[in-house]
Structure formats: structure tokens, C-alpha cells
Amino acid sequence: MFPKKNRTQLVVLSLCLAFALTALGYRVWKPRAVQASNVEIKIDNFSFAPTDLVVKSGTRITWTNRDDIPHTVVEDDKLFKSKVLDTGEQFTFSPTKPGIYKYYCSIHPKMTAKIVVE
Amino acid sequence: MSADLINTKNDQLLFDHNHDGVNRRGFLKCMAWAGTGALCVLQGGVLKSFSLSDASYQHAKGDFSFVQISDSHMGFNKPANTDVIATLQAAIAKINALPAAPEFMLHTGDITHLSKSSEFDQVQQILKSAKPKDIFFVPGEHDVLEDDGQQYRERFGKDAKGSGWYSFDKKGVHFVGLVNVMNLKAGGMGSLGPEQLAWLQDDVRHLSKSTPIVVFAHMPLWNIYPEWGWGTDDSAQALAYLKGFGSVTVLNGHIHQTMQKVEGNITFHTAASTAFPQPKPGAADSAGPMKVPADQLRSVLGVTDVNYKRGTHALAVIDSTLA
């Protein structure tokens, strides 16, 4: 279809284009800090949703347990810790210090998630 | 526990390393009876299963028997079972109707749903109507919420060590109650911890190798389904201390369904809940309570009867539903 030289150029061009699109995609899709001052995290089916959340410092985060089983929200180093949340109960925390906060359910420790505070 | 013996996803014995005749087919045959009134007997190292209606059931009767109940979740009131009082009472009625009165009872945890005093009170009140008067408990994660198990230990673990572990002897059988629901680490499963493991090693050290041992704890001491946390991170260490003994039976709750596995000298068994069923490993999005048609609920709840016959080293584990 193409002479060998042209084919090589085409491959190089394609690779450049793919790289450029990937870079552009990364810029577009890079997780951005949620601008809202209130953010909700659902506890459903033994998982936190969203599992990864990026927020601005001072954002008020509310967890709501929608399972038929109690859960907790506990930061790995106990920087924040909810009481036991039965069905429908909520826990609220407003991080003010930037950083990565990993947390889990202390009753079902396979449930893990994290919040990045910018 | 050697990982190659089980496929944790399907809970099947893949290799008969011990040449004890317990292969995948034998295991499944036994499983097929579970929940409908099953009898699984380990005799001379060979697992046999019978129907409860089988005349051979009589052979399983031994020197004494005890009964295990689990996961009564007092206080739970969601659609999967809106009356956990009635189903616990049905379990006690089932126990009281057994042909041979059990010597004592084990409750393998999640006595309550939310660790409330009123929930503990309610269970203790209902258990008073059971014929066996001695009841031995281990806590589930639902019994140690908020207070690190303080209330649990005040009620059931006054003479226990650490967070509530202990051992006792009955008619030549050594019983060990372990606690694997405290200090759970992010991303992990059940945990025994170094202090308890050291105690266990010392506790069984003085026993002769022919002493039958029964270990009971809330969370499974074998990895049933790590994706749902159905296992105990450091159980392999505990089982290593029990390797040299002739007969070891491990009884757990937590997963709200019966399941059994034999590995070398150790028989693992999980009991049904008296409150609500949970899905088979991986069969649902999560391990949450499973709603079944109301007229089928009692067929997925149950009690477990364990028989011991001196000299045979065989403990017969019989699951009965509440239906």
C-alpha cells in the first residue's frame, strides 16, 4: 500500500499522535479536586463510593451507610473515626490539612478507600 | 495451612496429600447434605457422610455431644429476617428436642447485632430456656463495637485471658475458645495476634498427642474467601501448633452458612446462623444479608450438633436446619 520509507514515517507519525493524545487525555481526565463544599460518600454493598476522592481543604464530607449491616469509617492512623453507623446513619468530617487520608471499616477491614485533600 | 490444598474460591480439596480418601468428590458429597440435616463423620481418617434419616446415624452417637449455635445477631430487624428472636427460640427448641441432651453449648459469636446491653440481655434471657445450662462464648465483631469488647468480657469472659480467649477440658477433650475479631487491620481479615498465639502454643504444649482438640472462634480459621475477609490472617500459625495432634476439630461461624473441609488431622466446620443467611462465596456483589422467601428462611438457618466417642478420635458434626 505504501513504499517502505513512507510506511516508517506513518508509524512514527502514529506514535507521536498516540503520545500527544495520551498526554492530552491525561490532562483532561486527571482527577480534579471536587469544588463543592459538601461531598457525599455512599457506603453500599460493603464498599465506599467513590473509593478515591480528591477534595479541597475544608470540604465537608458526609458518609451514609446504605447497607443492612453496620459499618465504620476509620482513618488508618485514627486521625478521624466514626462511631458505628447502622443503616441510614451518617458521619461527617471536614479535613483542613492537605494530605492523603486512607481509611477503612474497622468491622469489615477489606473495605478500604482514600481521600486526597489539596 | 498449605495453600495448594484448597482452591479458596471454590472451597474444594484439590489434592489428597494425606492419602486419607478425602478427595474433592468426598467433600462435595458431604457438602450436599449440609443444610438439610447432614452427618459428616471422620472415622479412621476417612470422611463419611450419611443422611440424618439413615440408620447409621445411631453409630455416630458417642460418649457425649455438645451443640454449636452462632450469629444470633440480636437486634437485627432488616428484610432478611425481621424476627431474630423467633428464630433463636426455634433454634433452642431444636436443641431441646435432640434425642440425647447435649452436655453444653457453644455460641461462636455475633451474639448481638450492635453490642447493645438490651441485645445481650435478650439473648441471655432466651438461652435460659435451653436444656444445656453451660454455654461457652467467643465474641464476633458485632459484640465488640465501640468498647473494644469490655461489655462482652464482663458478661462472658471474666475468667478468660486477654481479649477473651480460654480453654477447658471435658471428658478427655480439650476445648480452646479463640478471639479473632479484635484490632482488625485495614485491608486484612480476622486476627489472633502474637499474645494469643503465644498463649495457644503454651496451652496445648502439655497435652498428649492423642488428646482430641476442639478449637472454636467466630471468624473462619481457614481462608474461605479472602475477597470478603472470610478468613484469619494469622491462622496458619495457630494451626501449626495443632499439627501433631491426632484429632483437631475447628468450629467457626461468621459466614452464615455451613461449610466443611478436612485437611490432614484437622476438620474445619462453619455453622449456620440463627438469624439470616449470607450468599455463597462470590455469589453476590457483597456478603450482605441474603433475603429468601419467608417460607424458606428457616431452611437456611440452623444449629450444629457435635458428637464425640471416646477411643475413636472421631467427632461427628451434624448440621440441622430450623425448618
Question: Key features?
Answer:
heterodimer, A: 118 residues, alpha/beta, 4-stranded mixed beta sheet, 1 helix, 8 strands, B: 323 residues, 7-stranded mixed beta sheet, 6-stranded mixed beta sheet, 23% strand, globular
How is the topology of this model organized?
The complex is a heterodimer of chains A (118) and B (323).
Chain A: H1 4-29, E1 38-44, E2 47-49, E3 52-55, E4 60-65, E5 74-75, E6 90-93, E7 99-104, E8 112-117
Parallel strand pairs in A: 1-4, 3-8
Antiparallel strand pairs in A: 1-2, 4-6, 5-7, 7-8
Chain B: E1 6-7, E2 12-13, H1 24-33, E3 38-43, E4 46-51, H2 57-60, E5 64-69, H3 84-96, E6 105-107, H4 117-127, E7 135-137, H5 150-156, E8 166-170, E9 173-177, H6 194-205, E10 213-216, H7 235-240, E11 248-252, E12 259-263, E13 266-270, E14 302-309, E15 314-321
Parallel strand pairs in B: 5-6, 6-7, 9-10, 10-11, 11-13
Antiparallel strand pairs in B: 1-2, 3-4, 3-15, 5-14, 8-9, 12-13, 14-15
Strand content of chain B: 15-25%
Q: Taking strands numbered 1, 2, ... along the chain, how are they ordered across the largest sheet of chain A?
A: 2-1-4-6
Structural class of chain A: alpha/beta
Helix content of chain A: 10-25%
- DSSP strand (E) fraction of chain A? 25-35%
Would you identify the regions of chain A where 5 or more consecutive residues have pLDDT less than 50?
Answer: none
Largest sheet of chain A: 4 strands, mixed
Average predicted local confidence, pLDDT of chain B: 83
